[in-house]
Amino acid sequence: MDRPAKVLVVDDEPNIRTLLAQTLRLVSFEVRTAESGSHALTAVREFEPDIVVLDVMLPDLDGFEVARRLGEVPVLFLTARDAVEDRVQGLSLGADDYVAKPFSLEEVVLRIKAILRRSRASAPPDRELLAYADLELDAAAHEVRRGGILVDLSPTEFNLLAYLLANAGLVVSKAQILDQVWRYDFDGDSSIVESYVYYLRKKIDRWDPPLIHTVRGVGYTLRLPRRDET
Questions:
Q1: Going by fewer Cβ within 10 Å, which terminus of the chain is more open, N or C?
Q2: Which residues contact 53 (CB under 8 A, 6 or more apart)?
Q3: What percent of the chain has pLDDT over 70?
Q4: Are 149 and 188 in contact (CB under 8 A)?
């Protein structure tokens, strides 16, 4: 029988820690809590969580710095800071999702379950090598190159790019991306897609021509720019 998933809840507010811990235990997670960034890092080494629910505003190390030190542990940011630049900063560090306070406990549980499904079921694309123009994604080596130059991507950025490459020339909606990349089985917040596409563009489209395009009101596509876009 599979063991319960381990969740580390990191927040400096005792009421939030208690509320989240009790709720997550009720739905069969194994939970440990920490009230600061330094305690969180110690808990990660001792507890070896499957996911960390991480507040940004902590009394010592902020959540962004903690996330930098976590390595490959999936992270759900839970914070009052909901500005786009904060979301992008968190996601750029490899965080898997971002929920703003005040939050719905049901939504937090659903997002945790979605992240765990994704991390446990994350499989490479069907084809080991995906390529378009001068962009190449090697699933076996987990490497991406643009014009022969290696591009460093987080696991979620890698999966998002793989999905766009597998559908190169087609327009995919935010809902399709949430379903296929984030593996949500509920109506997730599409802003995470916008944030990830924004950051992925900063890495992939540093070189001309730009390949990732927004189709207003529809979604996103990976293709060469049309003549009227150059």
A1: N
A2: 7, 8, 9, 10, 11, 20, 76, 78, 108, 112
A3: 83
A4: no
Find all residues with CB under 8 Å of 223, minimum gap 6, and list them.
132, 168, 169, 211, 213
**Cα-atom radius of gyration of the chain, to the nearest Å?**
18
Average pLDDT along the chain:
84
Whole-Å CA distances, 21 to 1, 18, 151, 203:
23, 5, 38, 37
User: Token pair for residue 90?
Assistant: 């968190």
- Cα–Cα distance list, 187 to 127, 172, 174, 197, 221 (Å): 29, 16, 11, 19, 22
* pLDDT tens digits along 86-96: 565 666 566 67
Structure tokens at 165: 């490459």
Q: For residue 110, name the pLDDT band (cuts at 50, 70, 90).
A: confident
Q: Tell me which residue has tokens 């379950």.
A: 113
151-188 pLDDT, tens digit per residue, is 998 778 888 999 999 999 999 998 888 888 877 655 55
Calpha distance 32→55 (Å, rounded): 14
Evaluate whether 87 touches 64 at the Cβ level (below 8 Å): no
pLDDT tens readout for residues 20-64: 999 999 999 999 999 999 999 999 999 999 999 998 888 888 888
Sheet with strand 171-172: strands edge to edge: 171-172, 219-222, 212-215
Please give the C-alpha separations between residue 141 and each of 34, 51, 124, 125, 180, in angstroms, as whole numbers: 36, 25, 10, 12, 21
153 in helix, strand or coil?
Answer: coil
